[in-house]
Amino acid sequence: MTDGQNADTRTEREKMMAGDLYWSFAPKGADLEHDRAKCRVKLDAFNSSKGLTGEQQAERLDLLCDLLGTVDRNEPTFIEPPFKCDYGYNIHMGKDVYVNFNAVFLDCNLITIGDRVLMGPNVQLYTAGHPLDPALRNGTKGPEWAKAITIGNDCWIGGSVTVLPGVTIGDGCTIGTGAIVTKDVPPYSVAVGNPARVVKTLPRPGEASN
Asked: What is the number of other CB atoms lying within 10 angstroms of the CB of residue 69?
């Protein structure tokens, strides 16, 4: 094959969403830089909104729907400003989700959050990562990668929890304050610590509690 036949013709966004190495800064990542700049404008509008009256709350919901990939309008997500994210369009919220102050969602890949999830303040969801080889990493001139994060239904994520790339937290989980979640957490588990470890298994709906 020629070099042209071997060339990766995908956009940097397509590489990003595939979990492959991609460039997020210009010149290769110029489109992603543009997307992040658009997101900053939307974030500024959302974070400066008041949300005190019914009309203001409706305006804030409109801003949130414009910012995020999915928001249920009938049972909407409520996010306490300030809130930060990279792109917004990769964040998909279920019904009746509550996110407390100072959340940071680095949504370089999909962040999917189920129904009735509660998050304490300062929760950090990081889909983004960088090569360990410093020569390849090369500051802002090198590539990065991202892996999706999924949080199931009916979870409680305590304050200052950090969730790392590629993690799935199953339905019905409680993650203790300050935990750093580096691996998947099975459904109906309580996990605490750094790194987070399961310390208790909870009864599933319909099961008798021990």
From this structure: 16
Judge whether 130 counts as a catalytic residue: yes
Strand 98-99 to strand 168-169: parallel, antiparallel, or no bridges (unpaired)? unpaired
Evaluate whether 117 touches 155 at the Cβ level (below 8 Å): yes
Count, in order, helices (H) and strands (E) of the chain: 5, 18
- The residues near 71 (Cβ < 8 Å, ≥ 6 apart) are 61, 64, 65, 77, 93
* Distance separating alpha carbons of residues 137 and 107, to the nearest angstrom: 20
In degrees, to the nearest 5, what angle opens at C-alpha 69 toward C-alphas 10 and 25?
40
End-to-end CA distance of the chain: 63
Q: Are strands 145-146 and 174-175 parallel, antiparallel or unpaired?
A: unpaired
Catalytic residue among 116, 130, 147, 197: 130
Contact between 138 and 119 under an 8 Å Cβ cutoff? The reply is: no
Q: What token pair was written down for 129?
A: 């990562």
Q: Which residues contact 27 (CB under 8 A, 6 or more apart)?
A: none
Q: What is the tens place of the pLDDT at every residue in 27-66?
A: 999 999 999 999 999 999 999 998 778 898 999 999 999 9
